[in-house]
Amino acid sequence: MEWILLVFLGLVASILGSIMGLGGGIIVVPALMILSAYSPLLSDITPQVAVGTSLLVMIFTGLSSTLAYLKQKKVDIQSALIFFAGSGPGALFGVWLNKDINTDFFLVIFGGFIILVSFILMVRKHIKPLKRKPSGIKRKYITEAGETEEYGFQPVIAVSIAFIVGMCSGLFGIGGGSLMVPAMILLFGFPPHLAVATSMLMIFLSAIVSSITHLSLGNVNWLYTLALLPGAWFGGQLGAAVNRRMSSDAVVHLLRVFLIIIGVRLIYQGLTG
C-alpha cells in the first residue's frame, strides 16, 4: 500500500509542480515526513533523507517538464542559465545549512515570506515594475496569439534572487519556484507561462547540483526514489499540458492560492517541530 501511495504522491506532486513551476518538492517532503509517522515501512525517513530523495526525484520532474515546455517554445534558455549561475551555488550552500541551521525557525520565517508573496500577487497589477537600467537584459516573447510582450532584468539582481532560491532548494528539498516564479513575474515582467517554464529548467539544473551533494552525504533512499519516479516523469508531462490550456490569469491565481497553502504548511511544520 505504501508503494502505491508513493507512486501516486510522485504523480500529484509533479503535476502541480509542473503547472506552477514549483518542482513538486514542496509536496513530496512534507508528505514523506507525515508518512514516516504512520507507516512502519517508511519509519526510517529523516528530514535529510526526505530532502535528498525529493531533490533526486525533482531532476526527473524538471527534465520531463522542461522537455515538454521546450516543445511549446516557452522556455527562455538564456535567462534560465543566468538564474542558474545563482541557484547552483545557492543549492550547495543550502545543503551545507541543512546540517546545522535551526530549521524550525527558518521554516516559520520562510513560510511567512511565501504568504507575503502570495498577497503581493493579489495586487500585482498595481505594483510598479522594477526600474531597469539601460544595461539590463531585455527580452521579447511572442504569445500564441501573436502578441509581443517585453520583459527584462538586471543580471546581478536576478542572480542574487536565484541564489536565495537555490539555497531554499538545497535546504528544504523544494524546487524554489515558489519564490522564483513570483519574482520573475513581479520584478522582471515575465509572462506567467514563460516564467513557469523557465523556472522548471532552472529547477532541473539546481536539483542536479543539490542531489549530487546529498548523494555524497548518503541522504537518498533509492527504493523510495524508484517508487516516486514513474509518477514524477509522467506528472511533469501532464502538468505542462494542463498549463498550456490555462490562461495567464488562471496560472497566477492558482499559484497564489497554492502559495498560501505552502506557507501555512511550512509555518505549522516549524512551530510543531
From TrEMBL:
One Pfam family from the record: TauE
Lineage: Bacteria, Bacillati, Bacillota, Bacilli, Bacillales
Transmembrane feature ranges: 49-70, 77-97, 103-123, 161-188, 194-215, 222-244, 250-268
Assigned keywords, A-Z: Cell membrane, Membrane, Transmembrane, Transmembrane helix
Name assigned to this protein: Probable membrane transporter protein
Lineage: superkingdom: Bacteria
One GO cellular component term noted in the UniProt record for this chain: plasma membrane
Subcellular location: Cell membrane; Membrane
InterPro entries from the UniProt entry: TM_pro_TauE-like, TSUP/Inactive_protease-like
Chain segments annotated as coiled-coil in the UniProt record: none
Sequence similarity: Belongs to the 4-toluene sulfonate uptake permease (TSUP) (TC 2.A.102) family.
Membrane topology value: Multi-pass membrane protein
Protein's organism: Evansella caseinilytica
Signal peptide limits: none
